[in-house]
Each structure stands twice: as structure tokens, then as C-alpha cells.
Amino acid sequence: NNMEEGKEKSILFCLSGHGFFDMSAYDAYFDGKLEDYEYPEEAIRKSLENLPNV
């Protein structure tokens, strides 16, 4: 038990609106209508170049 051991526990979750706009994506997913998409390597490279050093 974390409390007995004096440890803290974090719970991470994402809250992003009410989901109305996601419903068509869920329908497409469950109906098997989503297509695989391979993101272009060049776009990935360009995006990574703009990441800050942390």
C-alpha cells in the first residue's frame, strides 16, 4: 500500500470535451472503415527538428 510506505501515487487522465466530435471516428473504427496511414518520414524528421531541447 502506497500510503503505508509513505509514497505518493499519481493518476493521469485526459479530459477533452464531451466526445460528440469523436463519435463518427468511433463508428468508423467499429465498422472497420479506418484506413492505415503511414506518416511520411520527411514530415517526422521536420517535426523533430523543431522540438526544443529539454
From TrEMBL:
<keyword id="KW-0456">Lyase</keyword>
<dbReference type="GO" id="GO:0004834">
    <property type="term" value="F:tryptophan synthase activity"/>
</dbReference>
<protein>
    <submittedName>
        <fullName>TrpB-like pyridoxal-phosphate dependent enzyme</fullName>
        <ecNumber>4.2.1.20</ecNumber>
    </submittedName>
</protein>
